[in-house]
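Q: What would this complex look like in 3D?
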Amino acid sequence: MSLFRLAWAYARRRPLSTLLVVIMLALGVATVALTMLITRELEARLTRDAAGIDLVVGAKGSPLQIVLAGVYHADVPPGNIPLAAIETLRRNPLIAQVIPLALGDSFRGFRIVGTEPELVTHYGGVLEKGELWSLPLDAVLGSEVARTLQLRIGDRFVGSHGLAEGGGQHADARYSVTGVLAPTGTVLDRLVLTSLASVWTVHGHEHDADAVARREVTLALVKYRTPLAAVSLPRAIDKETELVAASPAFETARLLTVFGAGVDLIRAFAWLLIVASTLMLFVALAQTLDERRYDLAIMRALGASRGQVATVLLTESLVLAAAGTALGLVVAHVAAAATGWWLPQAGPLSAAARHFVPEEWAVVAMALAAGILAALWPAWRAYRLDVAATLAEG
Amino acid sequence: MFELVGIRHRYGAITAVEVPEWRAATGDAWLLAGQSGSGKSTLLHILAGLTKPTVGSVIIGDTDIAALSESARDRWRGRNVGLVPQRLHLVGALDVRDNLRLARSLAGHPVDEAHISALLEAVGVIELARRFPSQLSHGQAQRVAIARAVVNRPVLVLADEPTANLDDFHVARALEMLRVQAIEAGATLVVASHDARVRSLLPNLFTLPASNVAAPAASVGVQ
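A: Here is my prediction, written as structure tokens for the whole assembly.
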């Protein structure tokens, strides 16, 4: 007869209070763990998408907007910049690489990005099928685009104006798919890539010399040649040109701070749930102690030491806490996996479901500590029990 | 088998029980008689090692249990004493069989399923093995408590007022069962009772004086 069986037998005797304690604790643990999983995955993704990009240069607008539009493809860009500005940046000795991006159109919610092959290289993209674009209106699909829209090489499609679905269609300009990229785990998977010339063609800037001279792109991703560039270059761009330079690292950190405040609030409520379930566990144990003391006395009479009867109560509390914690962690990971089905945009967040983040151990430790805490006073009373007097009662 | 010498136990200023001398041999079946409040339960708890007498020695087998530390007494009690309390105190969360298993485990013995089955059979409750205590009659629960008392093959079986809730017919049956099980286990039996019906059913008699304060020496007799 193990202590676990005994604990389980007692827990089964009061199924409602046991269930309530376990479920409340599980909800608290699940919420805390889920915020940890999502925060960590979000940080990892934001960091991965921004890795290697020192600066994003765009038209006058907020730096956060420029980073969101250029790195995460999650916001509209503030406006366009002349192609000549790209050439100027390229001549700057502090700059190693400039990748231009021409945005403005989308296809069924996925952004069409006019760029140069360096963008693919930058994100570590590899062609799974076909080849990169060579002619205007050739398109290469990120892996998620190809998978979601079921497009294959040779398929043709028409982009729509604007970055959301439902914009007017450029019916006279049909893209044709020439290649599909292998998954990279970055924002690249969700992009439709084409040449800069395609974007200019679609928007009808190809017909006269004047238009050619006014060619524009939307943003430029910049890599420094030397870390020293960070000191002077952003300020120089902001001051001396009509452009705005935004640092993805800085803007991402700012974004996570704002996001983190919301997460902290959710997490505080979840900890409150854990505290409440600890109190309930304590009440459940303390309430049964009056009738339980006869059981404890007879166990002492049967040879149990003071420590053993105290351990019975501690074990019971710990078993319930462990059950709640385990259930909570399962719920958190299942919920993280489920976000992939509910919100296709958050799909990659479901990758978090498969990993056990180290912070979760802290939740486990706290929940088990709560289990011990709840049983301390009842266990102490069991320890102090006067066996002879209790047996003589009644 | 056991030997109490110079026992006195006080609660504060009140002497609860006083026993100058009491010797018993292995296999004896004793009635510990006395009025309510004469200290029968206290003396029974002293024999069980649950209460340490204020003065005196309690030698059971080769062990002076009054001289043992509390945890050593707990261990000793689990292996050597079988107690049938007046209120029986089966563990309500466990079924009949698990109550016996618990007694084995707490004494530090491996759970011997065949032995448990044989015991439940012997006291006539084998078909109730999966029932919970709340589903048993008082008589059935008492048989389970007797089985539990002998499951660890103790040297001493102690029963506190086992006939309190029984009619005449069942008094004889309960005493018979206690005696048989004690003999099977090779244990000495002590039954504390103020019930006159028990007198004729046990060969050895030890009577505590009615008054619990500064009483003359307890009388020892054999019927």
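A: To summarize the key features: Chain B touches chain A at residues 41-42, 45, 48, 50-51, 70-71, 74-75, 77-79, 81, 83, 85-87, 89-94, 98, 101-108, 111, 148, 152, 160 (CB under 8 Å). The domain at 2-207 of chain B is CATH 3.40.50.300 (Rossmann fold).
Q: Very helpful, thank you.
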